[in-house]
Design a protein that fits this description.
297 residues, mainly alpha, MetI-like fold, two-stranded antiparallel sheet, 74% helix, 3% strand
Length: 297
Amino acid sequence: MRNLLRHQSFQVNLHAWLLLLPSLIFLSLFTFYPIISTVWLSFFRLDLSTPSAVFNGIGNYQRLLEDAIFIKTLKNNLWFAAGTIPASMGLGMVMALALNKAMVGRSWLRTFVFYPTVIPMIAIANIWMFLYTPEYGLLNQVLGLAGVGRINWLGSPGTVMWAMIAMTVWKESGFYMIFYLAGLQNIPRELYEAAEMDGAPGISVFRHITFPLLMPTHLFVFIISLTNAFKLVDHLVIMTQGGPNNASNLLLYYIYETAFNYWNQGYASALTVVMLTIMLTIAAIQFFTTDRKIHYS
C-alpha cells in the first residue's frame, strides 16, 4: 500500500514538473542565465582596448565609486523613482475610487483613462516633446496666456527631471488604476453597508476599510512601479538623451551607453548588477515590512 502511494505521488509530481518544464526552460534561458553571466562578466575587463576578457576582480566596482556620471545617474534614478512611484500609485488609486462608482459612461471613462498605457513610450515621448517645446509648445502657449515667460522644460537642468516625472505619471497611473479597480471589487460590500448603518464618515471608511484591504494591491503595484522607474528609458532616446549635462540621465540609459556606445561590457555588467541589487533591496524591504500589515482575506 505504501509503495502504491509513493508511486502515485511520484506520478503526480512528475506530471507537475513536466507541465512546468517549458516555463523553466524559458526562465533558465532568458532570466537565470543572463543574470549569472552578467554577474560573472562584471569581474572582467572587456572593452575596446581589451577585446578578450581579462579578469579584473572588483576593479569595475571600485571604479563605480569614482565615476561621477554613475553617482549622478543613480541620484537621478532615485529621485525619479521617488517622484513617479507615489504620484502614479496615488493618482491610480484616486481614479479607481472615482470610476468604481456607478455613473453614466463609466466604461468610456475607464477606457479614456487607461488609453495612455497602450501607447508606446516612443510615441508618448514625441507627443510630450511637442508639449514641452519652448517656442511653440502647447504648455508654453498656455503659460504665455497667463503672463508667464517661456520655459525650456527639456533644456534646463532644473526642470527636465520634473518634466520626465510628469510625463511618466500621466502614462503609468491608468495602468495602476486597473489593479486598484480589481482590488476594490474584491472588498466585501457588507463592510461598507455596516459602516453606512453606523453612520461612519467617508474618510473613516477609506481609512479603516478601503485602504487597509487594498494593502495586497499596494504592494503589488509598488513592485511594478519600482521596476518601471528603473527600466523606462525609451523617452530619453527621443527627448533628451540624458541631457542637459546628465540632468535627466537614468541608470539603465547609462548602462546602455556604456555597453553599446562605448562598448565597455565589463563595466556595464557591474552597473547592471548594482541596479538589480538596489531594486531587489528596496523591494525586499518593502515586502517584509509591509507583509505583516496585509489582509489577504
